[in-house]
């Protein structure tokens, strides 16, 4: 199976897929998290011991003994070096908040995959569940797609549908469904049967962050 790095920023849509992967014995080489500019940069690739926090992706990595990579904006060159040293086939991310540069995208031979909580190409953008509820949608879903330099535009590798309600359980369920998409896509990639379906731009929509 492809060697991969897992990237996210915490919360159900980041944490649950990683927990499910670990439970299945599908272990990433490292976990990549964003850190604010004021945070001391630590990229020694050693297992870290952050303060216990069940909602913290770093804590999940620590409990599993996984190396942690902190991505601090402005240090992309150093991050490139760290990823090149690990030499992953793939980076898989869920709810990662920043655009991935073209140089970073080119490092893993299989590129980057992203979990997005909508049925792409509809509801691209940083807060899709909010906009789907605002629009009165009753069906949502999660999409696993190839990452491109633009937001949420890459070819879709798999999708799963789910009823949409204004409940935190929706994020939990989408996290579980997303984990299933990742596992199935990794297996299909290994078998040479993974199909990437280009998105229909005529059906695409994008929403940014809601205002106050």
What is the terminal-to-terminal distance?
45 Å
**Gyration radius, rounded:** 16 Å
Structural class: alpha/beta
CATH topology: Rossmann fold
Number of domains: 1
User: What count of helical segments does DSSP give?
Assistant: 6
Give the second-level CATH assignment, the architecture.
Answer: 3-Layer(aba) Sandwich
How much helix is in the residues? 25-40%
Overall shape: it is globular
CATH class division: Alpha Beta
SSE order in H/E notation?
EHEHEHEHEHEEH
Q: Uncertain segments of ≥5 residues (pLDDT<50)?
A: 43-54
Q: How would you characterize this protein structure?
A:
The protein has about 210 residues and is an alpha/beta fold. It has a single domain (about 5-205), classed as Rossmann fold, CATH 3.40.50. It contains 6 helices and 7 strands; from the N terminus they run E-H-E-H-E-H-E-H-E-H-E-E-H. The protein has helices at about 10-25, 55-65, 75-85, 100-105, 130-135, 170-190; strands spanning about 5-10, 30-35, 70, 90-95, 110-115, 140-145, 155-165. It has a 7-stranded mixed sheet with strand order 3-2-1-4-5-6-7, sandwiched between helices. Helix 1 crosses helix 6.
Keywords:
Rossmann fold; globular; single chain; alpha/beta; 20% strand; 212 residues
């Amino acid at each position: 199976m492809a060697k991969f790095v897992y990237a996210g920023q915490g919360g159900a849509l980041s944490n649950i897929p990683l927990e499910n992967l670990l439970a299945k014995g599908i272990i990433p080489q490292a976990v990549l998290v964003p850190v604010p500019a004021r945070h001391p940069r630590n990229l020694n690739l050693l297992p870290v011991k952050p303060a216990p926090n069940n909602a913290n992706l770093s804590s999940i990595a620590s409990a599993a003994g996984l190396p942690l990579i902190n991505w601090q904006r402005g240090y992309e060159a150093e991050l490139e070096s760290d990823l090149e040293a690990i030499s992953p086939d793939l980076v898989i991310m869920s709810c990662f908040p920043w655009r991935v540069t073209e140089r970073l995208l080119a490092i893993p031979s299989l590129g980057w995959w992203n979990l997005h909580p909508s049925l792409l190409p509809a509801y691209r953008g940083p807060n899709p569940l909010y906009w789907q509820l605002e629009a009165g949608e009753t069906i949502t879903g999660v999409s696993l797609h190839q990452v491109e330099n633009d937001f949420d535009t890459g070819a879709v590798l798999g999708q799963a549908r789910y009823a949409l309600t204004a409940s935190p359980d929706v994020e939990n369920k989408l996290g579980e469904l997303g984990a299933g998409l990742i596992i199935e896509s990794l297996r299909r990639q290994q078998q040479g049967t993974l199909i990437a379906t280009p998105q229909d731009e005529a059906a695409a929509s994008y929403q940014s962050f809601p205002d106050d």
